[in-house]
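Notebook B, p. 112. Complex prediction, attempt 2.
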Amino acid sequence: MPDTKHTYIQRELFIRSFFGVPTPAEMVELLVERMTDKVFSPGDILYTEGDLPGEIFFVTEGTVELTTNGQSPWIYSGTSFLGSIDATIEQAHSRTARALTRVCASVMSFDEYVRITEDFFDFAKNTMLLLVKATYDKALKLAPDEIFPKTQQPTGWSRDYTYLDEVQRILVLRNTAPLRNASVQALALLAQHTIEERYQEGEILFTAGDRNLGVSFVADGWVSVHTQTPPTMSKVGPGWPMLGIVSFSPDAYILSATARTDVIILRIPHEDMYDAMEEHFALTRSWWQYIAAENKRVLTALGRHFPEVHL
Amino acid sequence: MRSIRSQLFDLRPGEGSLVLESGLTLFGLIAAHTMLETTRDTLFLGHLAVGNLGLVYVLLAIASLFAAKANHGFLRAFGHRNSLIITLLHAAFGNIIFYLLPPSAPVVFALYIWSGLLSSILVVQFWMMVGQIYTVAQGKRLFGLISSGGVLGAVVGASLSLAVLDYANVQELLLVATGIFLATALYVTNHEVDRLPVTYSEESTASNQAGWHSGLGLFGDYPYLIRLSLLVGISTATVLATDYLFKAEAVRTISADELGRFFAQYYAVLNTSALIVQVFLSSSLILRAGVINASLILPTLLTIGGGLSLIFGGSLFSFVTKGADGSLRHSLHRISTELLWLPLPEYVRERAKGIVDTVVVRSSQALIATILIVMSAFQVDSSRHLAIMVCILGGIWLFLGSGLKKPYVDLFRSVINQRLIGRVEFDLRSVEVVVEALSDRNPLTAIAAIELLHDSGRTRLIPALILYHESNEVLLRALEVVPAKERDDWVPLAQRLLNHEQETIRVASLRALARHGHIQLIGHQLHDISPWVRAHAAFWIVSQNKNQPDLHDSIQMILEITGPSGREARRGLLEAIAQAGDKRWANLVLKLESSSEPEVALTAIRSMLHIRDPRFLPLLIRRRAIREERPMAKEAIVAFGDDALQSLVATLHDDTTSPRIVIHIPETIAGIRSKKALKILMECLENMDDGRVRYKILRALAYLTSRSSLRVPTRTIEQRIRAELGEYIRLTALHQSLVPELTWIPSGTSSSSGPNNEPPHAAAAQLLLGLLKDKREQAFIRIFYLLQIGFPDEDLRAIRLAAQSSDRKRRAQAQEFLDALTTQSQITEIRPLLRILIDDLSDEAFLSRALSYISYEPPPVPEQALQELLQSQDETLSRLTLYYILSSDQGGRHQETIEALHRRSSFQDLINLFPQLGLKSPSFS
């Protein structure tokens, strides 16, 4: 229980400005109620590598270092949100978080946080969009061939579809990275909204600046995705969203795509995707896990290029 | 036999050894105590006058105060198990000393106090140990069984006493009791209890560190504890008065020589009847009547017994009344009282129970004993007077017990919801914190402070000087929030901002000034360099006219601007209308909506959200499909009230309406919050075929009933819940019957492969099982929405989440809350099914219990389950089933089904795909 009214107010002010997206007052109230304040001295451990994640830390001030053997540390200064990546992808902490200075944090259970977020879909969607943008911006600091995850064709995927019926679409969607943990009911709903598109080798799917028509999953074949600055190219194959995590954003395309082979694309308009996510929270969590995993991949890759990763 | 056993004892896998451990421990405790009690009563009433009982009760109460403190220290230092062992060893040691001492009056007096202390401490320690192990749901099922051990111990103790008394004097019983205490102590050393993980919250640790007396502070934090203490106190007083009445009658009617044998025989009969009650009645009574109602049975019987003793006199009714006490106190009453403690957090229970079970119980005994001494002194302690006393105390007990119903449910509710505090209140330090944040250079912090004050209705605390903030975002928000009629300190500052370099700030300033009656200050903006700003200024100035404002010269000038400037001006005008327009602007909006300029047309549509004109209704309903405009569109439609219902229903039933619009209509109807809206939603719930829409209707009804005084008849709710429970059971049965078929998929049966190299039928099987589980979960959620409609003042979502929690104690709390809630309502028929629904049961065990409540015959073989799924109205489910059948029919097992399906046109497209799967096509005649 918050000890005084003013610490409660401080926490409420902090949360209202923390996420960078409109945070409904009711949600702020629920979050603040379930938080406890903790102060860590320099050298104190917030959590240890290998521990199962249970709590998330809204750091209000101070510097925290996340370390693991053989990799560059990630250093978080000022306000930061710690513990959520591992908790989201349901893995043990991959790094130890240690306070480098005096650290003040509001702490709450990750499960509670998820439960509260479930009631505020627009908030969840907006924070996911922010994370997508932040992750992509960080990825642009990487070598061109590291910006996108390396995709491999799932074993035995290739087959000649002449037409993808509803069940086959569900099967394809179920095996894509962002939808792997979605419920069958949600996949069935998405399958109803899926538009099947076919392109021949060499055909341009879209170019940077075009209006975004939805999240596109490669069902069959290979696509080249490329940017102008920095000049980079990625090969995207079956089972992957064509633009990686950026697919989640409805903004105009920032990349171009060309068919490397004959391809089949399953496209879901963003609004249909968001509607399905609002109805089926497991679908939202599935996307969330995919984005968090990609964020972790990018941070790890940055660690290979810099002695310290400052965040 | 197994069925009878399972009906009597509902013992689940893994619980048997724990229950046996607990039951045998209690058996030992009570058997030894019964022998000690027989010795004590015989020696006391044989050596001392009955009037001395009052004095001994007073001394016992004082001794208990010290014992309670020592007990608490024991528990903290040694844990539940070790404390019990230490106490048992002390009990054996003490008994030996009393055996060796001659039975003089002071020794007999001391023996009475000794046995009283032992019984209270041992029983408290035992039940606290048990409370740590079991959840409230387990308690309801298993405490009866555990208590049976105690009652059996009492029977054996009393019978053993009788047998011993045939050959030895009453003091020899002390030796036998010592042996049983020692044997029990030895047995308890094998218990695992203290090795179970027990987590104490920080609150608990802090509280415990603060010392024993701080436990009293918990009574302030938990008013339920006060009620519970009063209940325990009055129940103690009542049974003591009953005991006194019984013993007084025994001394009056039975010779001193026969007392020992009488007590041994009487207790044997009493305990045997208690055992029967325990084994055959307790658990089922608690499950059927609920904890609170079950706890009222004993006071009811004592009140009636006291009344009959009063009316008819004689010893018969006194003995019978004591019989009721003896039969129920350690069985039904003990269980229901222990269950009354379980809603409390563990650390509260641990601290408070020790105080209540010793201090409160003994203080109550002391008080009644003092009253009895006084009654004896004034010679008003006849059986008649004592019967009156039992009657009155029993009545008070009943009254207090009945009053516990609401707090009991409330406590579960608060534990499950974990709502700790209400809306924040400000104190001086809080205000300082917020005001400091307002002047923060970080715009996010400053805006957060503005929002916080705005949401809590304290915008007056925002200083007008915030309009000097360097951030445009802060200025925009402040210009919306700060201006108010009752203050004018912001006016010169807003006027200064009319010359701001940013158009948006200039517009926000002129709007703020105009809205609060300072029109004269914005005239200059009609000549602003920006057409967009000029349009806003024109709108506000013209809006003052009562005539048709769109015909005003200023507006005509805006409309006549051409090119990109004209487009900006018209967009500005429509935005201003969107913010503060009224019906007078409707024609202009309609005119601009048909503009060839897409941006202008879109802004016109958005401005319709704020103008109440029936012509806009169909358009507004369509705007519900657009995420960003949904809240505004809903607000605009709802403003029409019942007038909007016809359009909404027509859109809902129109087959051409986009599903994206349809699914938002129920929520919009609910927003109208009228009787007519409720009626329409109920009708739609009956008539709509689309499961998604029905789900939305349920949500809408839950919203409507919880935010208004409108109610759905209980009978209707109960019927629907029953239907959903039936669906849940049916889906579970189908899932259960398909698991053997669908989880055994031979690999390599097909050359064709889907994603991840799965044979198609394996993938289809996984999807089918997954879909069945999803649909079952949705039925579960629908049940809770219906409960929400039935109990609009409760937060049933929190209960559902607790019911689905991985924490077994939270699940048990949800089950008990729901049980208590429905016990108090008219929803009675489905109560047992709801209890089973949340119970910790495997699918198989769930079905074995649930199927007896509905008329559904589960498919005996997987083929029939598949047949049933093919007939499902849910197209995804039926098509997925068909897909599985087609792709898995290697041995021709489904040939008959496939032939039948071949004639069903709706599946034709899928059947035509069959060769594509690379599988051998079945031949059809």
